[in-house]
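Hi everyone, sorry if this is the wrong subforum. Our group has a chain we'd like a structural model of before ordering constructs, and none of us has done structure prediction before. Sequence below.
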Amino acid sequence: MQDLTSSPAQLLRYGSVVRLTQYVPKPESHGSVDQFVASWKEEFGGTLPSGVVYRELCRQVPEWSQLAKKEIDNPVDAALIEYLVAEPGVEISDIHALPSSQADAWSIVQDLHSVAFRFAQDEASRTPGALMFNLFEIDGPPGMEQGFLMAWPPRGEFKMKEPATISTVLHQRMMPDATVKAFNRAEVVSAELYADGIDRFAVAFPRADRKLGTSEVAGAKPPIRSHLGLFEFVAAKEAPVPHSGRTMKAVVARQFGPPSVLRVEKIPLPSPGPGQVRVKVNASSINPLDVKMRSGEVRHIYPRWFPDVYGYSASGVIDAVGSGVTSRSIGEQVYGINNPIMRHGYAEYLCGPAINFYPKPAAMDFATAAAAPSIFATAYGGLFLRYQLKAGETVLIHGGSGVIGSCAVQLAKQAGARVIATASTPNVERVGKLGADLVVDYKTQRFEDFAKGVDLVLDTVGGETRERSWSLIRKGGALASLLPPPPDPEKAQALGIQAFMVHGHPNIVEIMPEMTRRLEAGELEFPEIAQTYPLEQAALAHEDFERSPPRGRLVLVC
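Answer:
Right subforum, don't worry. Here is the predicted structure as tokens:
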């Protein structure tokens, strides 16, 4: 095992590109692992290519993996794995992964990833004695990949309380055709200690609860397949993180807390990675999720990663494109979602997947365009992603006059559903005009008296309102909530319904064209903007939001 000056988990930054390469011996070859390792060290063990921050080669140890066999659904096929961390602007396809002398004896499977969630011990005194790689193939209906990612943070948090674990990082794919959709890389003190904790993990996260979705075809592969193995380092090399010298303004948080933790700083200007664009931000919407991230209220869903930059729904002008991008071009006015995991919208520039940004409707200003995608994606996700509301079904939408609720009322009605919505007295008429078949004035009426046996409840309010809604859902129906904590799964199971948190849409490209068409055709109302603030006043905007949540969106403008 080679000593490292720091855990690679500490080297990962916003925008880091992680290349995972699996090496599998060809059936007809007689090449050995030792020969491969020697060739790799000889060819790649010198100076790291420019922009590469870390490179390691790991060899699977069958005896170690055997210790963890209770945890392994499918073993990792690769005898060796290379883990490479690069700056986003690096032409990573130019960095060879297969030693030239081994090309006839080994084949490779290779994917690019970004970081979804990272946990690491603050002290650097412990040395890893083994590595755990768990590679996930995810082939299911829309939302399955997102559901898997969002269910992972509690597992990472649990692992970090175990004596064996030094760091654990979940990675998500960058390109749509990735073989491995996500993988977890963990540094552990020893294979023995890792194996010792498997039973405790199984009690905390029962295996049945970890399986999202089922295969409907006899003999078919399950939609989520885990391939796990324990490895040892055989070579590792670390380089200083390069800095181009170019900076930008951003609103940075270095801890959870009140709005005052948001401070304007100069940070490195990001470069777009493969499949990404860089957007010169004109406007960034302040979403309720941003506020909850900043306060730490949703740290069980979005773990800490400081210094952090919030904001994920934005509009602006593309000023750079990464390798492989053909759908977008420099100078385009765009709007979209940078994925709440990546965020970084409260800044002069952001980098995100090109497929997440779409040409801005000409009739919309940048502030309105910044607010629209997250509103539409959340409303759409709550109605159609996990439950798939159909024509003729009945949906109860709480908070029908809010920014999400009002969009949901329109979408549900246009889908042919019967819509019951709750609203306060001044907003009853407006919600009715948006398309609700029945509007319940929650100030003077009980919604239980008007909604029974509904197919779906979309909860944008939470608390007592959510609790009063359980009994109104028919067996086989669903409760979709926008607010933490997640709905109680045991209660849902007892009632025979689905219950889930809504986290927008995992692939915004699937809905952006239709959203844009509806907005341009006048089928959807433009979202209401309550107030705009300069980027430097982000803390004040958060204060105003918490003091009196507005009906419309608050937006930062650059």
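For your construct planning: The first strand starts at residue 17 and ends at 25. The CA atoms of residues 128 and 189 lie 5 Å apart.
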